[in-house]
Every structure is written in structure tokens, then in C-alpha cells.
């Protein structure tokens, strides 16, 4: 049977790899090259930089209850290197989510190779599309950093031996989590609890952790004024947060998420209590419990700050990233219980010998199937939303988007968006980044009617506009097209907002002799490409 678990582990790893690759392949093409929602709040950082003002105050400033210093620094460095290519931020976020997956699988499978079967469920939870927001906007890089840091902290603190350097590394992870996203403060009490349970005495490592935690949490407390806590709403809000990813329903409402979260908390409490009674010294139990507590504590911290907004706020997509470890820990506890049952199969009636293995298969494959079912519903909806945002930004570039529409599709502050677009355009950032000088332009010819020729063209890397569109015959220039014409249909079909200005049009003078002309598009680097030939009849000839 050991061979069976080995085969199942390899299958689970293959499914995990396939799941992650599929999520990336499906969602990354939807990522826009212009800011979305919270990303507009980085505009003051770029204004300070281009105005020659200090950037550090912008990096250290708290935002919406988060002291996200680390991701802001990453945004700034990546932006300088790439002219604020927002897709690069999302790609880094994918890499961090992959790192989180690897760390959690390693943590949960340590000491028992049979637990490699958890690879696929862990990947499905970390890349669960209940949290689709974090895979479409670079601003959620802070959450990815926080989750990777928390996973790294647990890996270090659950090492077989726990030397002081491991404790120091865990403290670095805790600081990274704290200064990446608001709920990252849970790293200090969680790490302290694990440390006390592992060391079982007050020593230098525990003392260091207590001093570091006090210093960091004091700094966080100084950074902002906490919102009033609506204590009566905290339990319901916490359970709703936990149920957002646990619910079998795509886009669950608050009531469905509350039910799923309540069931999940009850199941966690029952499994943990049973394991503590039967196997209190099991390292797998403590690892799984710590992972689950990471998600539970994050949900509690979020509820303390946001419960007053109302239960509907708890099903916001990006919160599921913080609470995903609860689902992972719960699955690991169920796996631990069923494997312990399997180890005692000799005590079972002959007809029930295979029951633990059957239940284990149903639990783990059931989670992956549930995640896939959610994805099949979420992807079409999200695709429509992202295309709507692309169209909205394209209309903004054409000067057609009202303040009310900006608030609906892009950001609640139309003034910030309009100011931001002006800055992006002036300094060649994001959508307006210059094309690659080595890239060849490309496009199409769509209409030829007498002396009128129309089409579209984009520069190397998909940038707009091109340098020129020329109509020639044997090298002789006859006309230059007007570029930057409105083409909202291209923006919609391509999912690239800037392509709303990819159109070109030329009306040939009547003096141009009828016949074949080449349409030549010239890239910003001077590379000429022939789009095709057209048969023109100026003057109706």
C-alpha cells in the first residue's frame, strides 16, 4: 500500500502543477496594463518621484488600515525598472503564491511522505478563484507577500531542531508579513505560541521574540487610528470570512458563506479536540493546526477592523486569500485523522478495511472538484468584468467617460484617476510606456472604398500608436494615414484598453493614379512592415 500512496502523491503533485499553470494561463491575459482600484493610490508616489520630492514618506504612509511598506517598495523598484508595467507586479504575485504553495506542502508533508497527496488540494486552495481579485491586480502583491512570509515562518518554527538562527529567520518573516498587509500582525502571536510550545521554557529565543513582537506591534499601533470595534458583529463576520472559500457555491452570498464558515469552524474544533485526545504529540497535528489558526486569526483581525461595514463586506474576494490557510489546515486535519484510522485498519472489520482510503480520496478530490466548479463559474464572469473595465479605460482615453462611470469601473475618486492618467501619459508609464525600438509593428486593412482606406495598427509589444502608416507604390510615398483613430471594438476584442486608439484612416487625393498601393506601417523604432496591398480608385476612376 506504500506504493499506492507514492503513486497518489505523484498524481497529486501533477494535478497541483496543472492547476497552477491553468489558473495563470487563464487569468494573466485578463490583467490590464492600466491601474485598477487601489493601484491609483500609488499615483502620489510617482508624482513625488517625478517632481524631485522624497519618495520615502509615500512608502511609509499607512493606507486603509495597512502599513504596507514592503509591497510599496517592491512596486516602486519594479516600476522604475519597467516603466510601471502593472502586469509585472501580477507576475511576481503569481510567483509568491507558488512559493506559498510549495512551503505549505513541504510543511504539511514533513515526516510522512504519504501527505504529498495534499499537494493538489493545497494548490487548489492557494490558487482558488474565490480570491480572483488577487490574481488580476498587482496591488494585492502585499497579500501574496504576507501569505508567503507566514508560510515561511511556520516552516522555520517547525524545523526538527529549532536553533536561534531559525528563530531569527522566523522573526524576519513575521516582520515581512506585518509590513505587507494589515492581517500580517497575526505572525507575532502565532509565532510566539508555536515557539513556546516547541521550546517549552522561557529562554533567549522566546525573550527575543517577545521583545521584537512588542517593538513591531507598537510601531504598527502608532501608524494609525484603529476603527471602533463592533464586538457583537465580530463572530458572524469572522465565520462569513472563513466560509467565502469553503462554500461550494461560486460567489456565495453572506448567508451561504456564514453557514459554510460556521460548519468549518465546528469541524475544525471537533477534529482538533479528537486529535489532541488521541495523538497529542503528533507533529502533523500541530503543523496542520498552526496552518488553520493562521487563517482563523487573520479572519478575526479583519473582522475587528471591518465588522462595522456589514456582513456583505466579508465576502469581498481578496479576503479569501487571508483565510485560505484555514481551509488548508482543515483539509490537513481531516487527512491526518483518516491516515491515523488507516494505520489502525487491522482493527477494522474486513468489509471496512478500505473505508479510510475511500473517504480520504473523496475528501481530497472533492475539494479539488469543488474548486474547479467554482472556477468554471467565476472565469466567464470575471472575463466580462475585466473587458468592461478595459472599455471604460478606453473611453476615458477618448474623453468620453463621466465621473460617475469612473467611480463605477475604475476608482471612487474621479479626480485621482484623471490626474493619474495625465501623469502616466506625460511620463510614459503603464499603458503609455514606449514600445520596444526593436519590435515590428503589425495590424490589418479593413476597408477600401474608392480613395478611402481604413484599418488598425499597433507597435511592438502591442503599444499604441505606431509611428506612421504610409501608402506607397514601388517606394514612392503617396499618402500618410491619420493615426490614433477611435476603435473601441479593438479594445474590447483584444482586452487592451490602449487599442481604443489603434485605428488609422487615409483619404487619397484625386491626383493619385488608380491601382495597387502598399500599406506600410512604421514602428517607433523605424522598422517597416507591409500590411498588404490595396486597389484604390481616387476620384472614382
What does this entry look like structurally?
Helix content is 57%, strand content 10%. The protein is of the alpha+beta class and 541 residues long. The strands form two sheets. Strands 1-2-6-5 form a four-stranded antiparallel β-sheet, with no helix packed on it. Helix 5 packs antiparallel against helix 13 (283-306). The chain starts with a helix and ends in a 5-residue tail after the last strand. The model has no long low-confidence stretch (mean pLDDT 85).
Strand-helix topology:
Layout: H1 2-27, H2 43-50, H3 56-60, H4 69-82, H5 86-109, H6 119-126, H7 141-157, H8 164-178, H9 187-199, H10 204-223, H11 234-246, H12 254-278, H13 283-306, H14 319-343, H15 355-397, H16 403-409, H17 414-427, E1 442-449, E2 452-458, E3 468-473, E4 476-480, E5 482-485, H18 488-494, E6 503-507, E7 515-522, E8 528-536
Antiparallel strand pairs: 1-2, 2-6, 3-4, 3-7, 5-6, 7-8
Helix pairs in contact: 1-6, 2-17, 5-6, 5-7, 5-13, 6-14, 6-15, 7-8, 7-9, 8-9, 8-10, 9-10, 11-12, 11-13, 11-14, 12-14, 13-14, 14-15, 15-18
Amino acid at each position: 500500500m506504500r506504493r499506492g500512496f507514492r503513486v497518489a502523491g505523484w498524481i497529486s503533485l501533477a494535478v497541483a502543477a496543472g492547476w497552477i499553470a491553468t489558473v495563470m494561463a487563464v487569468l494573466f491575459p485578463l490583467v490590464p496594463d492600466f491601474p485598477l482600484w487601489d493601484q491609483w493610490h500609488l499615483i502620489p508616489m510617482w508624482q513625488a518621484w517625478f517632481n524631485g520630492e522624497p519618495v520615502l514618506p509615500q512608502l511609509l504612509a499607512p493606507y486603509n488600515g495597512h502599513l504596507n511598506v514592503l509591497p510599496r517598495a517592491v512596486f516602486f523598484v519594479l516600476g522604475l525598472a519597467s516603466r510601471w508595467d502593472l502586469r509585472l507586479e501580477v507576475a511576481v504575485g503569481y510567483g509568491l503564491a507558488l512559493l506559498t504553495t510549495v512551503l505549505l506542502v513541504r510543511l504539511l508533508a514533513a515526516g510522512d511522505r504519504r501527505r504529498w497527496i495534499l499537494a493538489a488540494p493545497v494548490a487548489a486552495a492557494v490558487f482558488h478563484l474565490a480570491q480572483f481579485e488577487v490574481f488580476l491586480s498587482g496591488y494585492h502583491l502585499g497579500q501574496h507577500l504576507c501569505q508567503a512570509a507566514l508560510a515561511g515562518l511556520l516552516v522555520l518554527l517547525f524545523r526538527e531542531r529549532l536553533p536561534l538562527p531559525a528563530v531569527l529567520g522566523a522573526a524576519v518573516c513575521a516582520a515581512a508579513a506585518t509590513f505587507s498587509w494589515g492581517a500580517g500582525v497575526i505572525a507575532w502571536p502565532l509565532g510566539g505560541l508555536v515557539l513556546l510550545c516547541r521550546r517549552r521554557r522561557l529562554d533567549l529565543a522566546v525573550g527575543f521574540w517577545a521583545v521584537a513582537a512588542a517593538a513591531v506591534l507598537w510601531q504598527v499601533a502608532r501608524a494609525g487610528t484603529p476603527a471602533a470595534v463592533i464586538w457583537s458583529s465580530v463572530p458572524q463576520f469572522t465565520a462569513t470570512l472563513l466560509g467565502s472559500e469553503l462554500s461550494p457555491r461560486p460567489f456565495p452570498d453572506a448567508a451561504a458563506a456564514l453557514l459554510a464558515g460556521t460548519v468549518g469552524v465546528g469541524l475544525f474544533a471537533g477534529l482538533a479536540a479528537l486529535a489532541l485526545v488521541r495523538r497529542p504529540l503528533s507533529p502533523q497535528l500541530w503543523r496542520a493546526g498552526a496552518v488553520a489558526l493562521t487563517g482563523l486569526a487573520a479572519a478575526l483581525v479583519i473582522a475587528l477592523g471591518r465588522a462595522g461595514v456589514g456582513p456583505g463586506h466579508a465576502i469581498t474576494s481578496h479576503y479569501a486569500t487571508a483565510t485560505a490557510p484555514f481551509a488548508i489546515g482543515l483539509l490537513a486535519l481531516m487527512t491526518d485523522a483518516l491516515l491515523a484510522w488507516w494505520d489502525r485498519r487491522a482493527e477494522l472489520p474486513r468489509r471496512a478495511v478500505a473505508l479510510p482510503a475511500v473517504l480520504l480520496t473523496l475528501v481530497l478530490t472533492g475539494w479539488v472538484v469543488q474548486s474547479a466548479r467554482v472556477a468554471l463559474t467565476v472565469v466567464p464572469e470575471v472575463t466580462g468584468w475585466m473587458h468592461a473595465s478595459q472599455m471604460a479605460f478606453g473611453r476615458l482615453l477618448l474623453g468620453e467617460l463621466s465621473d460617475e462611470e469612473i467611480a463605477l469601473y475604475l476608482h471612487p475618486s474621479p479626480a485621482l484617476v484623471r490626474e493619474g492618467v495625465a501623469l502616466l501619459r506625460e511620463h510614459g508609464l503603464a499603458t503609455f510606456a514606449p514600445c520596444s525600438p526593436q519590435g515590428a509593428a503589425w495590424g490589418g486593412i479593413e476597408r477600401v472604398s474608392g480613395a478611402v482606406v481604413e484599418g488598425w495598427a499597433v507597435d511592438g509589444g502591442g503599444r499604441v500608436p505606431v509611428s506612421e502608416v504610409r501608402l506607397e507604390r514601388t517606394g514612392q510615398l503617396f499618402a500618410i494615414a491619420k493615426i490614433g483613430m477611435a476603435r473601441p471594438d479593438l479594445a474590447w476584442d483584444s482586452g487592451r484598453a490602449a487599442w481604443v486608439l489603434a485605428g488609422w484612416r487615409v483619404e487619397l487625393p484625386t491626383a493619385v493614379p488608380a491601382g495597387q498601393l502598399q500599406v506600410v506601417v512604421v514602428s517607433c523604432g523605424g522598422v517597416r512592415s507591409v500590411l498588404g496591398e490595396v486597389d484604390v480608385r481616387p476620384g472614382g476612376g
